[in-house]
Amino acid sequence: MRKEKDALGEVLVPEDKYYGAQTQRARGNFQVGNERFPVEFIRAHALVKKAAAIVNANQGLLPAGLSTAIQDAADEVIAGKFDDHFPLPIWQSGSGTQTNMNVNEVIGNRASELLGGKRGEKKPVHPNDHVNMSQSTNDTVPGSIHIAATTAIITRLFPALDRLARAFEIKSQEFSGIIKIGRTHLQDATPLTLGQEFSGYAVQLRKAGEGIAAVLPQLAELPIGGTAVGTGLNTKEGYDRLMAEELSRLTGQAFRVADNKFAAMGANDAVVAASGALRTLAAALMKIANDIRWLSSGPRSGLGEISFPANEPGSSIMPGKINPTQCEMVTMIVCQVYGNDAAIAMAGSQGNFELNVYKPLFAAAIMQSINLLADASASFAEHCVEGIEANAGRIKELVDRSLMLVTSLNRHIGYDKAAEIALKAWREDLTLKQAALALGYVTAQQFEQWVRPEQMLGPDA
Q: Could you give the number of structural domains in the chain?
């Protein structure tokens, strides 16, 4: 252990750790749960520290040597070299002060070490005076949440979502000639093609992606430079703009200064909006995954219209059983994303005056939702959708047995007579043709001419 001092006195800190006194105090004060700040947030926060070191040096506030050391130390954090030096749970100060200081201390100690100093001495690089220069927890933490979320959406979620949508688009083309019975209210309806059905899934996913993309401009607004309450106290004129430009350069994303820092810090509406867009994607995935497991149910005592890859044995007692495990994985993740969205929405409503003090929860919940949806989309595509096969025989059997083909007779004999045919067929276990002929409403030739599933797939020519 090494002895360090902070404003409250002396603290013993593990000698092998780069964090310092404030982090060590927080370790004792917040022994709550096992949830840690997402690594993406930690690295985004280190990126903010790097950008601040560059801007502060360019503005003549930070000596060049200290700036370079801070940048080098931040780069090591971003590279994941010190992941185990960030031990604090998300359940801490609602601003995230303890984790902001954790990052300041790790970067400060490592930067000092790079310059020949020793850990814990706060020289030549001080965690507050140098690493945290021109900053506050209150403006950097929400900024880092926006940076981490934007980066994860663009680099992880969008590619995975595109793969899944493309998988359904390919299957839609592959199944374009397979006529099947439609279903509404979980009851038989008029026919469509399996390709048409799958095209709906692809468009759902594309539209959900567009909805997420639509909120990215809100996440692009950063409150950095607002410091404690949004006024920019302890920054130099132009610092906020320079920070947005530097972070854009470092990330390759277009960040800008928040239109109003008081709104951005007193609330977290951009995160609430982003979570809502993620919830829409989750809703689409729930519908799609449930449809897939309905369509594949059986294989002999259910619908059995499609088959998915047999990835693993489905039962510890029933030999040969194959379960829709990918669908079940997706639906569980949807439930978690809905839970995260509810937490984010509630937390977003709880800002007080110049600060919303639920920022660690925002960071953890939004990043978990993004990462889970990305992983689920990629896995669902690879291990299920891309390997789906149509069971053409079963599909034709169900089409031929459906009573709702009678709908094609509406224009010829009227709704009431067509309904009478359907009910007679159902009650007496007859085919539609048998019932229609028995009632004398059509001839055999008329029935064959008018009741043709392939002509029921769109508007009349």
A: 3
Which of 133, 159, 182 finishes a domain? 133
Active site annotation includes 275: no
The Cα angle at residue 325 between residues 322 and 331, in degrees rounded to 5: 145
Amino acid letter, 161: L
Domain endpoint, select from 133, 157, 180: 133
Tell me if 237 is assigned to some domain: no
Q: Smallest Cα–Cα separation from 197: which of 82, 84, 291?
A: 291
Residues 435, 424 contacting (CB under 8 angstroms): yes
184-243 per-position pLDDT tens digit: 999 999 999 999 999 999 999 999 999 999 999 999 999 999 999 999 999 999 999 999
Is residue 406 helix, strand or coil? helix
pTM, two decimals, is: 0.96
Domain span holding position 421:
402-455
Residue pLDDT, tens place only, 100-138: 999 999 999 999 999 999 999 999 999 999 999 999 999
Residue 185 annotated as catalytic: yes
Q: Do 354 and 278 fall into the same domain?
A: yes
Which of 297, 315, 402, 412 is flagged as catalytic?
315
